[in-house]
Amino acid sequence: NNSDFCLIIMDIDHFKTINDQYGHLVGDRVLKQLAGQVRSGVRQWDIAARYGGEEFAILLPNTYLDQARQAAENIRLSIGRLNMRRTDTGEVIGKISASFGVAQYHASESDLDLIGRADKAMYEAKNRGRNRTVTSTPQLKDLQLAK
Q1: Directed axis angle between helix 24-40 and helix 15-22, to 10°?
Q2: Please, how many CA atoms are within 13 Å of residue 117, restricted to the half-sphere of its CB?
Q3: Fewer CB within 10 Å, N- or C-terminus of the chain?
């Protein structure tokens, strides 16, 4: 509808380690807990969904890049405040973190271009040390780091 919107791609840092150390049932509970954090960190008209194994995509209609970056940061910080424990044994799993890539849609690009830019920004967040948010513009050279 010609409105501005943004896409956030979020990937849980070192999720394979959680599955390997605690098992897939605990990994599933971690995913559900983080999905709740994502859901509570977005507006009622935003769309958040599991995008892959441990990835989430968040579509933010009527949103500019700086607003989407702030939303990603708020979610990242809320995840960082969690101190996960196994419910069956009480064993501490510890802190969980996630890396975020944020991109604003531009009329000159396809939906796949937008997804690619957000995904590339998320991988850049991982390359820069994880547990951070990176924003992207159509010219990928313009990545910005937040932490």
Answers
A1: 140
A2: 23
A3: N
